[in-house]
Write a structure and sequence with these properties.
This protein has helices at 3-18, 115-127; strands at residues 23-36, 43-51, 54-58, 72-80, 83-95, 105-112, 136-137. The chain is an alpha+beta fold. It has a six-stranded antiparallel beta barrel with strand order 1-2-3-6-5-4.
């Protein structure tokens, strides 16, 4: 292993350690249902990019997302094993694809979650983090 490899590995590890919130990329997507508070119309989507403070929805055309930045959403997320959590979320940012590179989509930030659902989400993220850190998003 070269010095460059060692320094790069150490920097990657430090970035992960310094990150306040750990995001993970899942092999199998999670089912997510969104709606405006009290609305009848629900949108069923999936995500593979999850943290204990939110998630990222990949969208080809993020401008067509049916919510805006001031919308507060009701969110149900299936965590597998018949576990589902509920929280309120808000659009944190819109990411547009840059010349066929990278992912386009919408980042959703959790704005209100009860202790039981928060604990379930944190446990899910912790249990699904690869020990080598290979699925941690820097």
């Amino acid at each position: 292993m070269s010095l460059v490899d060692l320094v790069g590995d150490k920097m990657s590890a430090n970035l992960r350690e310094n990150r306040k919130v750990q995001r993970i990329l899942l092999e199998e997507p999670l089912r997510v249902v969104l709606c405006s508070i009290g609305a009848e119309v629900k949108y069923e989507l999936t995500t593979r990019n999850v943290s204990n403070t939110g998630f990222f929805l990949e969208f080809e055309s993020p401008g067509r997302f049916p919510f805006n930045q001031s919308s507060i959403m009701e969110v149900w997320m299936d965590l597998g094993d018949s576990k589902s959590i509920f929280f309120n979320g808000k659009m944190a940012r819109v990411v547009h694809r840059q010349k066929e590179q990278g992912e386009a989509g919408i980042a959703i930030r959790i704005v209100q979650i009860d202790k039981e659902n928060e604990d379930l989400l944190l446990k899910f993220v912790t249990e699904n983090t690869d020990p080598s850190g290979s699925n941690v998003v820097a």
